TrEMBL record, chains A, B:
Protein name (record): Gfo/Idh/MocA family oxidoreductase
InterPro entries: Gfo/Idh/MocA-like_OxRdtase_N, Gfo/Idh/MocA_domain, GFO_IDH_MocA-like_dom, NAD(P)-bd_dom_sf, XacA-like
Residues spanning the membrane: none
GO MF annotations, alphabetized: nucleotide binding; oxidoreductase activity
Residue span, GFO/IDH/MocA-like oxidoreductase domain: 151-276
The entry's keywords: Oxidoreductase
Family (UniProt): Belongs to the Gfo/Idh/MocA family.
One Pfam assignment: GFO_IDH_MocA
Keyword Oxidoreductase set for record: yes
Start and end residues of each Gfo/Idh/MocA-like oxidoreductase N-terminal domain: 21-143
Length: 355, 355
């Protein structure tokens, strides 16, 4: 047990401690500036050398404020300005803008870490995968949960048979979006920028993707029900959603809402044990284990969204520097897009949608 | 707050402290003998005067062991033996035997507290309601959660607006049935005695019924997926099940399994708060509240299945002695049977089944 405790944070995926990946960051919202930027600064293998924003002035100002050498505009980025100054690109813009920035990165021979969900539609996500494949550049999707120590340890326990056979998975992710960002015209509520909808795209994806990672299997069919009642959600179908996903030999239920009290959970009940992440997403991640008559609660006092993002970037840098395989690559992200599209279709039709 | 704490266990439904209801108990399994019998002994308004079992000898032996005055056989019960010795009947037999014992009780003018689920099919549950209505006898279904203090306080908080508007409900109820009762031929796995199936009938019903009680509304449509893989579950469709229930303005997901690690939960997330029962069912009931930035965990050290059952009987006795309305009456239980039948139909067809 002491070995398990002392190695709780160990990066078992780490291949190298040598080298540096220089990042250009695109989409300077609060996440990129307040979380991703300090997260990369705290990493060992990454550094931020370029910030990209709507205007050169704005980019240069934010760069100066954050000790980043260069600030350039999106236009300059597309034109190939400062390509000598960065090795890889982080895309943190609204969903529907991902493709154009990834295509440019591929054209410049740059590797990409792109935020989830990959894009606004399956078709655009597919084009993203193809452009990186054609250019021979790496594409990773920013699933932070994969490198969270709680999730890493949970996956190992499951591989070692802790659960017996998985029986049921329950995921939940809710937040009060309009309290967090008090703007009814924000991009997450605009189908042109968010894609199929808001709750499954932005929140449900955490439960679904983390389950795929933990169980190492993909859903084969989905059912769903969703609704919007608040005015601000008029243009998206899913102010709230409830989905039922069939995996081989086990079922998952996933609920999410952008207009609810915050709660994040992922619980996997097996024939012989149970693993729960509570809270599950967005930084803090508590690991609650039970098997036979024993319950164990593991919490990590200093782990937060920034630390989680440091792990994400360190993993990507490590893969690039060691030329290793990337688990959540473009094809992995594309599967999520297909699942999400099926959930929206199931919500609209009431049908079971096979994958 | 101190008033709330000190009145946590208060029976706000109580109308009388006078009088005694004399019970005959049918179906002397471990639940009836080890839980219901001491639970009634611990109540103020009830006493057990007759035990009914397969043979007179067995009934008399168990009666003597438990200081109960009379023991009679099922045959004697049907024949009207000892009807002067009891006022009401508790039916704790396998599901498919409920109807015949309730019909006899009605014929003898006895009131009935019948275990949930009411019967094996909607049609038989309907006949049960009709026979009691025709005889003018009371019929209550044994939903222990309604009189659990945690559930009572949760319902009051919801009525007072604690949640804002309910957004999503997640219920889960799993247990390792074959470890608890190591017999593959037990009645819960036999469709002739259990009815439509085992997991939704026996476990899912807790999540569904408690939600109906807490939200004071009924589902309007269901979707479901279920499967059996273990040999012992060959004759029932639902070794495990996952269901999606649509209520007006909110959705519920409910998972259950008779072949899994034990866990019981019910979580209702609203626009402004969250109420969780964890554990939720079978005795202990922890109440976990969150609203704004505050979380409150309420646990009750001495509450268990027996105490919960005492409350159930005390409520029924109180209603009989004061001639008050019974909340979980036959029609209330019949609605659960309709919901459960729809869930099995949805599981078989993949369709959305409207209620």
């Amino acid at each position: 047990m002491i070995d398990w405790i002392d190695s709780y944070e160990t990066r078992r995926w780490q291949s190298t401690t040598e080298g540096t990946v220089r990042y250009a960051l695109l989409g300077l919202g609060w996440w990129t500036v307040d979380v991703a930027l300090p997260a990369i600064a705290a990493s060992e293998l990454g550094e931020v050398t370029v910030l990209v924003s709507s205007s050169t002035d704005k980019a240069e100002r934010i760069a100066a404020e954050n000790d980043v050498p260069r600030g350039i505009s999106y236009e300059e980025y597309h034109d190939g300005v400062a390509t000598d100054a960065y090795d890889a690109v982080y895309v943190g813009t609204p969903n529907a803008y991902h493709l154009e920035y990834v295509e440019t990165a591929a054209a410049h021979g740059k590797d990409v870490l792109c935020e989830k969900p990959m894009e606004s539609t399956v078709e655009r996500a597919q084009r993203m995968v193809e452009s990186c494949a054609a250019a021979g550049t790496e594409l990773m999707i920013g699933y932070r949960m994969h490198t969270d120590p709680a999730v890493q340890r949970a996956r190992e326990l499951i591989e070692d048979g802790f659960l017996g056979e998985p029986v049921s998975v329950r995921g939940h992710n809710s937040q009060p979006l309009l309290e967090m960002i008090p703007d009814p015209d924000q991009w997450r509520l605009d189908p042109d920028r968010t894609g199929y909808g808001t709750t499954v795209m932005d929140l449900g994806i955490y439960s679904i993707n983390t389950t795929r990672f933990l169980l190492d299997r993909d859903p084969i069919a989905v059912q769903s029900r969703m609704a919007s009642t608040h005015d601000a959600f008029d243009d998206v179908p899913d102010e709230r959603s409830a989905s039922l996903l069939a995996f081989e030999d086990c079922e998952m239920v996933s609920t999410a809402s952008q207009n609810a009290h915050e709660d994040t959970r992922l619980t996997i009940t097996g024939t012989h044990g149970q693993i729960e992440l509570r809270p599950a997403f967005h930084g803090e991640c508590g690991l609650h284990l039970s098997r036979n008559d024993l319950s164990i609660d593991v919490t990590h006092e200093t782990f937060d969204a920034e630390r989680e993002t440091t792990e994400l970037f360190e993993y990507f840098s490590d893969r690039l520097l060691s030329d290793g395989d990337i688990y959540p690559d473009g094809r992995h992200g594309l599967m999520d897009m297909r699942i999400i599209e099926a959930i929206y279709e199931a919500g609209e039709t009431g049908d079971v949608i096979e994958l």
